[in-house]
């Protein structure tokens, strides 16, 4: 014990001496600027809504390979995987309800509602901003749970280059090259980034694949008042998996995926008070899948999916006075889908208006109010308000509270899907196809034995899913080296869209469609703490307590309706059910805890980190058939993942070597899909710089 204390004193003393040697260096502000929460640049601590910022330094310290690896270690976020893919939960809400942006523009390609984030590399990410709580007042559909905005590095503010090479377990290879060129006078700049990634995969949840990514930006200061930013990105991924469905019919499932986007943004400053941004964005996502019989080489099935999004938006920011700012915008979307499982080309059109007022009277209050109206070609009009208030009791303590309305529009799958599983035999029909008589045509062809009453409800117009989101919290900063945040949240979702059987087929299977039925709530507490123990030694920890349940199930248990009235234990004995027996929605852990410890030895160019992520048990499957997860059903057991990283810099610090281990205890469980065993990685990063920054604020590219 005495040796440990002496070592700690010596360690901090050496850091102090090292800091004194660098005392002549300029002091940088630690205030983090955030743009996602208000669509304008604001200091994080002046925002009255829950915001998390992951910096480029954080990403490097984690030694992460893909975006999914960065986000899964954040408090209040969790990745889940099922037969439809992986997705990001926020505050216990389904992945469908979180809007994911790259530089403020939406990622598309939700084949089954979930958005696969493994296709996003972290090579040029400057920071990630996470806004929790309904944000439809600014961003419209899908921002019902919150927003994740991936902000990439600015274009050509310096002339430099970097190369990162990383390899490890499961045949993983990750190579990223990034280059910036600043033109004379720093009035223009160019950036290019390319990435290659491959893996041999592990189990059936992540098949072998390789991908190529290319991103580029060009900025130009056209005049003292106007600037132009052009950006583009493209990712290609190819994956394949071998299946053997019947024991004597091995097949290869190969999928090629393309994701591309381009944007042009023109900014104009009318005066010191008034500025404007005009932006056009285009995105295209496609997949081509081919199933081939390995014994014969014949194709047994092919499918494709094509999605296009066009967006035009015009935003104005007007500084009313020193204490207030007005932001308003107008825009429109044109979205089309063609796919094997959709009849013809399907189109959605929407227009929207939004306004926001930011009021900061004095030094104690921060108030933001906003309202957005969306007009949609399918589900009509929706209004989404939001109000957020923060009060600074002192320089150390501030309180914040926010209330927001969110919504999610029915997607193409729920409206237009026409799919019959060739291996099993069930059919899924979108509600628009039901309205066009698809079920009646199947009945006339002798494929239907019974049409259920639910079919007539499913043929009605689907309504947008709506939510009310409440957040309240406190920020405590007793010293510059300590930051503690506590947030209490409650989300209520109505008009939840669920699939249900609408007819029985002659082959013994069912026809499914969609209907607005359920009411879901999630509630809980989030707590985070950051402590800089001494120079170079930092502790970060976070905890979430979560309750996520379906109100319709609770009401059915109370009323003793059908299967909801009882539950069956493993021995077959039936018991009277109570609401306390209902554990909650699937794949939600009641407790989540993450801890990170980072330290650096600057005189050696050495840094290291240790991380632990704990998830308590989560409901997996309803084994006794009563329609909900109870204490006798199947659960994913609680588990904890440990990770370690070590980095050594050479040549001030142009060259660095990184070693890391993920899942150090080699934890495996068949119910934890997508979780490999122990993984070891080694990587090199090289930086080259020939021209320092002009020390001016770069053009706001967000």
Write a concise keyword list for the protein shown above.
702 residues; mainly beta; 22-stranded antiparallel β-barrel; 9 helices; 38 strands; globular; disordered N terminus
What report would you give on this structure?
By secondary structure, the protein is mainly beta. Helices cover 10% and strands 56% of the residues. The radius of gyration is 26 Å and the shape is globular. The relative contact order is 0.12.
Proportion of strand residues: over 45%
Largest sheet: 22 strands, antiparallel, barrel
Low-confidence segments, given as residue ranges, are: 1-29, 691-701
Radius of gyration: 26 Å
SSE-based structural type? mainly beta
The count of DSSP E runs of length 2 or more, i.e. the number of strands, is 38
End-to-end Cα distance, whole Å, is 51 Å
Instruction: Indicate the mean pLDDT.
Output: 86
Count of helices?
9
Into which percent range does the helicity of residues fall?
under 10%
Shape: globular
Short recap of the structure:
The chain has 702 residues and is mainly beta.
Topology:
Layout: H1 2-21, E1 33-34, E2 42-43, E3 51-55, H2 56-62, H3 67-71, E4 77-82, E5 85-90, E6 98-102, E7 105-106, E8 125-132, H4 136-139, E9 146-152, E10 159-168, E11 172-182, E12 188-199, E13 209-220, E14 226-244, E15 250-269, E16 274-293, E17 299-321, E18 324-339, E19 346-359, E20 365-376, E21 380-392, E22 397-408, H5 412-416, E23 418-420, E24 427-429, H6 431-435, H7 438-444, E25 448-451, H8 454-458, E26 465-479, E27 482-505, E28 510-534, E29 537-550, H9 551-559, E30 566-568, E31 574-576, E32 591-601, E33 606-615, E34 618-621, E35 634-636, E36 639-650, E37 655-662, E38 679-691
Parallel strand pairs: 6-9, 24-28
Antiparallel strand pairs: 1-2, 3-8, 4-5, 6-7, 8-9, 10-11, 10-38, 11-12, 12-13, 13-14, 14-15, 15-16, 16-17, 17-18, 18-19, 19-20, 20-21, 21-22, 22-26, 23-24, 25-27, 26-27, 27-28, 28-29, 29-32, 30-31, 32-33, 33-36, 34-35, 36-37, 37-38
